Amino acid sequence: MTTEKKKNLLGQVLLLLITIAWGSSFIILKRTIEESPPLYIIGIRFLCSGIVMALIFCKKTFSVSKSTLVHGLSLGVLLAAAYITQTTGLKYISPGKNAFLTSIYCVMIPFLQWWLFKLKPKSYNIISALVCISGLALISFSGTGESGSHEFIGSTFTLLCCVFYALQIIYSGRFQEKGDDTLQLLIYQLLISGVIIFALSFIYEFPRYEISAFAIKEDQIFPIIYLTIVCTFLAQMGQMVGIKLTSPTQTSLILSFEAVFGVIFSIIAGAEKLNAYLIIGFLIMFAGTMISELKLDILKPFKKKPKKKQENPPTDD
């Protein structure tokens, strides 16, 4: 095996491990926020991971330009909004459904780019969106489950999370294209998102919860450390390395399995009750995601190929 192939394989394994970690985070976060204020928990997750990253890469932290700092702060606002809405949704629906609905962000990206930057989506983007919508319709018929009438609220907040997450990815890419350092953007978006979430926790959760609810219990220590170090700090760092070692197609394909692992861990933990509607809906949504990520143009065989212009035959002088 050549060195290039070894690096590519390492990148794929790294991205797969990250995808598994992110898939497991849904059920772990679900269990953790059942006992503690949710904003308080995700505030710890992002602020602590940002502080650890800032200390390890202190030269990068303090040598940041003004434009990169502003861009990092704006990305932090979007990241905070994404996780606040996702975690709110997670309170009302199962971790598996939350994971699959979150995966719709990759379908939204081309349409948001069209709206923001006049970049017209391709035919496979439109097909992907229609397929995902049909899968979402089936999932909505899967029953209300334990959340009862609140399931609509959970799904709505989770879909709102997709919009913020898609915007965060779009602008992160544009800022890096303009020359911003990837690591510096990551450090400051983690820090600012942690600060914002903690501030909202103080405003909204502190008056509503007893003081004892903010004390970290012994059985919560490992889940919070896992979410902070493994699912945030190490995962974000590993993603940066993995993306450099793999192709865009490989990256998008592997990361799209986050929703699948989210459902698997949810089933193992007994938080997901599968039925025919739910299974078929998940499969359809996954197919729609694959069409978008792999850029599968299903209509290509039916498109008319432009006729080649016939060259004029040489004439005798």
Attribute tags:
317 residues, 13 helices, mainly alpha
Instruction: Report the major sheet.
Output: none
Radius of gyration: 22 Å
**Fraction of residues in helices?**
over 70%
Distance between the termini: 61 Å
Q: Got a strand count?
A: 0
Structural class: mainly alpha
Order of helices and strands: HHHHHHHHHHHHH
Number of helices: 13
Q: What fraction of residues sit in β-strands?
A: under 5%
- Average per-residue pLDDT, rounded, comes to 83
The parts where pLDDT drops under 50 for at least 5 residues are none
Describe the 3D structure.
The protein is an all-alpha fold. The chain contains 13 helices and no strands. It has helices at 3-33, 38-56, 58-62, 66-90, 95-102, 105-117, 123-140, 151-177, 182-205, 218-245, 248-255, 258-268, 276-293. It is globular and about 55 Å long. 41% of the residues are buried.
Topology:
Layout: H1 3-33, H2 38-56, H3 58-62, H4 66-90, H5 95-102, H6 105-117, H7 123-140, H8 151-177, H9 182-205, H10 218-245, H11 248-255, H12 258-268, H13 276-293
Short description:
The protein is mainly α and 317 residues long. It has helices at 3-33, 38-56, 58-62, 66-90, 95-102, 105-117, 123-140, 151-177, 182-205, 218-245, 248-255, 258-268, 276-293.
